Structure formats: structure tokens, C-alpha cells
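Consider a protein example.
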Amino acid sequence: MLSDAKRKELATKLYDINAFKFGDFKMKVGINSPVYFDLRVIVSHPDVMDTLADMLQEFIVDNKLNTSGTHLCGVPYTALPVATLISIKANKPMLIRRKEQKKYGTKKLVEGKFDAGDKCLIIEDVVTSGSSILETVDDLRSEGLVVTDAIVVVDREQGGAQNTEERGVRMHSLFTLSYLMQVMLETKRVEESTVKAVAKYIEACQIRSDGSFVKNGTTVVNELSRTRMSFEARADLAKCPLAKDLLKLMAAKKTTLCLAADMTNSEDILNLADAVGPYICLLKTHCDIVSDFSEQFVRSLQSLARQHNFLLMEDRKFADIGNTVAQQYVGGLHRIADWADLVTVHALPGQGILKGLKSAINAERPLASRGVFLLAEMSTEGALTDEKYSSATMKIATEMDTDFVAGIVCQSKDLVAPPGLLQLTPGVKLEEGVDGLGQLYDSPERVVKERGADICVVGRGILSSKTPSETARIYRDRLWEAYQERIGAEEKNGAGN
């Protein structure tokens, strides 16, 4: 049985190597915390890492989780070294879950030898909301593995245990934040005022896996959940795999620009895509206006998307019953499901439209590589998408087929609250105004900071330019700067919360 003396000794060692510290730190879930854990530093202290691995192995035995045939899987990436040590010490097979699926070779998401039905025990370092554990659980279960338990080094006691329990995963923690604070107080490493401040913080900030907060038993939306969180942090909270990939792409490429390639000639579209590809995260098409649409055009477009690292979105605006949209999605001349990563969809037909589209998902078009943007609002004057319609659309997005809905097309900052959903907003131009057909245009700064857009659609502002590449670069830079200012405001205003 693991002794309390051993636990206290390891706790003080973690503090002494600066694995946790006190101050005012911004967390990836979008709030500020008076305490921060960084267990990555243990890789520079082999003795501490060895001790931690021994204690976790003993902890696994104490909790009777060392059953025969159980695999180990460390949540990437911090828990991987510890999981590896435990695997060696306990002679247990280990699996590696990739954060991103390979685009080549076997294209595996989970590496290692296993069979469907095998059990897997998750190893994690620090848990706040439990989102990283649940993300790993989803990927392991998608491969047929059985996951019922997770071992964590530190539970910050902010909802992680409850969130994982709701998904059928029991969380066992070596340390809780409260326990660590008491040990630090006993060993005179912190003052009592610090312990009280952390206790108050834990009580005030209970976080659900969707990024919302629980206060006094009531779930409330955290306004920092989306517009003031970074794309990297939000990627961990996305329920739709393609939304997760897109958020990571935007963060890595530093662009929120979507090009609306509303052109009628395939060669013109390909030339434009090649020119602006380095600056965009999405290329939006209207395939039914391309007069010479062909399979070769699609292959060339996909090649450019891979070359320049952007996704393809067909702005089809599906709006029919499930059976009809399923045929429109996979059949006809355009065979949209074969090449479009994303499609736009009206919520008017209700839940059935998503079921129809999802029925086209198969081995050649896996769910992880396809997603939809639901239209909640339009950017034209006099649009009939009123508040009631928009709210109903959001209900579909957040309660139904959440693994398929990547985001929302809208104009309002407050409509999209969940951090894992993307807001796509059309009608962006360097100079604001209205065209002759009622299309409203906002500046990059206004659409990002005031309207809350994550992805901004630009069409004629680039298409009509004599130098599309240079103009796209200008849009990208202004949009990215606006995004940085948007999340930077949180760091300044959120201090001390």
C-alpha cells in the first residue's frame, strides 16, 4: 500500500524542481489560475521521474487496475515518458495515441499491437476539465478498445473527475490540488493565504468538458470559452474531429482567411488557389457555377490544398430532406462528398438533414475527414434568419451530431458559445459598405473583434485585385492581428480572476 510519507516526499520534490508554481497564470481552458503545473520538467530530473513511475505503478496495483491483458496509453504528450517507464517496470504493453492522424503510410491514429475488445488504462499528468483524457478515450474507443479507468498525477479538482465519469471513465488521482496545498503548507513552502486563495479558486471555477462553468450547481456559459481563447486551447475542446484539425491548422499557419473562389472557370480557380494558398485556411467553392467542372479539376484542387495546407469547403447550402441531401452529397456530376472537407448546410429541415449527410460516411470518406457548417445567420439585408431560427440552429449544433458539426455561419459574436465550434463569417472587406445586391461588408477588425468571427470569408476583395497574392497576404495579416488582439484582451482583463 502506498504510504502517505512517500506521497508527501514526492510532492515536495515536485515543488522543489519547479513542477508547480504560484502566481497568476492563464490556463488553456481560458481562465486565470493562481497555481500552475508543468510536469514536463521531470524529464530533466530522472530520479524524480523514476520515483513517480514507481509510485504510479504501486498506485495502479492498489486500485486493482493491473489486470491481465490491459494496455497502457499515456495522453500525448507530457504523460508519454511516464507511461513508457511504467510499461517497462510493470511489463505491460503500451499504446501510443497520435494527436493527429498520419496522412501517409498506414494512417494510424493509435500505434501498437492490440485487438478490438482489449482493455486500455490511460495515464495522464494534470487534469482540469478532463478534455484531454476524453479526447484520448474517443480515439481509443474508435479503434475498438475498452477504456474504463484513467490514472492521473494531479487532479486540480475543477470538474475533471465528474466529466470523465459521465463518459464512463473513472479517474484515480495520485494527488489532488487540495492535498498538495496542505503538504506545501505543512513544509512551510507556501503561506496559509496562498492555500486559502487556491481553495477559493477551486470552489469558484468548476469547469465542464464543453468549457462552461458550474457555479452553485448551475451551469453557465463562460464568455472566455470561445472568443477569448486561443485556437490551440479550443482544439482540445472540439468534439468534431475536423474542427479540431482546422483549429490546429489555423494556429500553425497563423491565418483565419477563407477565400470565396466564386469563379466560373476551373483554370482561373486553380491559378488563384495556387497564388493565395499560402495565406488561407479554407478555400470555399460553388461547384455548380463552374462551367467546365471535372474530376481532373477536383484532383488538381486537392493537390493544391495539400501543397499549401488548406481545407476545401463546398458552399452547397444543403436544404432538403435527408434522403435527398444524401444523394446530392455523394452523387451527380459533382460528387461533393468525395472531395469537399466541409460543406454548408441550412438547419431548416431539422436534424434529418445531418442524418442524411452522415449516411454517406464510409471507409473512403471517414467521419474524421468530413464536417459541416450550419447556417444560422446570413449577411444580406433583410435575411429571414431571425433570432428564433438562429437559436434552433445552435441547439442542433450543440445537442445533435456534435462530431459532425464543425461550426456555424453567422454574424453575431454571442451566438456561438462552445469553444469547440468555429464561427465562420462572410462579408469581409478592407473597407466597409454595401454592394448593389444588399451584401453587407465589414472590416477585418470589426468582423473579428466585434462580431466574433474565427474564420473570415473574403471574395471580391481578393478576386478583383490586380495582385491577388499580395492582397490575400494583407487580409491574412490584418485578420490575424485582430485575432491576437482579441485573445490578448483576455490576458489583460482576466488578470486576478
About this structure: The longest helix spans residues 468-493. The first strand starts at residue 20 and ends at 26. The radius of gyration is 24 Å.
